[in-house]
Amino acid sequence: MLEALVAIVVLAVGVLGVASLLLNSSRFTQQASYDTTAMQLATEMAERMRANPAVSQTGAAAEAIIPNRYFIDTATGQPPALTAANSPYAIACPGTAAGCAQQLADFDVAEFWERVSTGLPGGRAVICRDMVAYDQATGFSWGCTPSATGRADDAPIVIKIGWISRLAARTVAARVDMSDMGTRPQVVIVATQGTVN
């Protein structure tokens, strides 16, 4: 009788171990899916920016007058509305080449914003000039550090994407702050390099 009880306890511990392994496997698989999605979104947005240099690579002097339309933080503000009235695929471009480039930039940002917010849990994206995207002590950060030279266009344009990780602690006290939508970006890529002389 005692042997049967010991066998049941050992079997129960084994079943719990397998269940834990399956749960962690599911979490790692989902996190890998989010990593892939974020990298694809960042790479695609970088390509869109490179294809529209009239807006994305205007330089510091122009950005001081008219802010770069690609520079966003999805945690603040609202995206440009995606409608048939402003889609470059639905209507003809209004007038000048500069107007077409601005319309395309608005469309790119609106679509990117929508895909980040719907494709990643608590998704957040920041596009800005950042000279120090990574710090050895703290890792990646949402902040944007301009160039130390004083020229804004010396800093590269980076795309930062983060989300609520499935690997994060599950306790209420340790949970990722939802207002920050992730304590740090998980994916950071350089869209265009700076112009240090």
The rounded Rg comes to 23 Å
- What series of H and E elements makes up the topology? HHHEHEEEEE
Q: How confident overall, as mean pLDDT?
A: 78
Strand order in the sheet with the most strands: 1-2-5-6
Report the count of strand segments.
6
Number of domains: 1
Proportion of helical residues: 40-55%
Which residue ranges are poorly predicted, with pLDDT under 50 across at least 5 consecutive positions? 171-181
**Structural class designation:** alpha+beta
What distance separates the N and C termini?
A: 83 Å
Strand content: 5-15%
The largest β sheet comes out as: 4 strands, antiparallel
Described by the principal axes of the CA atoms, the overall outline is elongated
- In DSSP terms (H or I, runs of 4 or more residues), the helix count works out at 4
Structure description:
With 197 residues, this protein is α+β, with helices and mostly antiparallel strands. The chain has one domain. Helices cover 42% and strands 12% of the residues. It is built from 4 helices and 6 strands. It has helices spanning 2-51, 53-56, 60-65, 97-119, and strands at 72-73, 124-129, 134-135, 139-140, 157-162, 187-192. Strands 1-2-5-6 form a 4-stranded antiparallel β-sheet, covered by helices on one side. The protein has a two-stranded antiparallel sheet with strand order 3-4. A hairpin with a 3-residue loop joins strand 3 and strand 4 (139-140). Helix 1 runs antiparallel to helix 4 (97-119). The model is unreliable at 171-181 (pLDDT under 50).
